[in-house]
Amino acid sequence: MPEFTRFFFAYLLSAILQSAGSAALYRSPNIDKLTFWKIAWGMQGMVVTIRALTLVELNRKVLSPYIGIWALGRRLLLGVAAVVIAYDLLLSKGQWQVVGHERGSWPGIGDGWP
């Protein structure tokens, strides 16, 4: 099984588990809104991280035969990731509960705008 395929299946599994976990938490009468919010964003962070790893591995697999292009692609991926993280931290203004993976990560991982 190719390496990027494992990351892809991990991403699919994490997305499914996130949806199932969120639905189960939402239906739980014993959980307050703030706790649900924190858990839901933690799960979203996990899914976004695995998605980013999947895209990096896919790009590596496709571009690695072309050494110069992969060197440029790797630098571009790291640069975009740094800009997205800086953007997210800048807009959070030091309030860590505001740091939203949704707002900061979509442009950087190729999933389009929210």
Short description:
By secondary structure, the protein is mostly helical.
List keywords for this structure.
flat, 114 residues, mainly alpha
Question: What does this molecule look like?
Answer:
This protein has 114 residues and is mainly α. It has one domain. The protein has helices spanning 3-27, 33-63, 67-92, 101-105. The longest helix has 31 residues, at 33-63. The two termini are 33 Å apart. 8% of the residues are buried.
Could you describe the largest sheet, including whether it forms a barrel?
none
Question: pLDDT average, as an integer?
Answer: 78
User: Could you tell me how far the N terminus lies from the C terminus, measured between alpha carbons in angstroms?
Assistant: 33 Å
Percent strand equals under 5%
* Number of strand segments: 0
Order of helical and strand elements: HHHH
Domains (count): 1
Count of helices?
Answer: 4
Radius of gyration based on Cα positions: 16 Å
Q: Give the class from helix and strand content and strand pairing.
A: mainly alpha
| Form type | flat
- Helix content range: over 70%
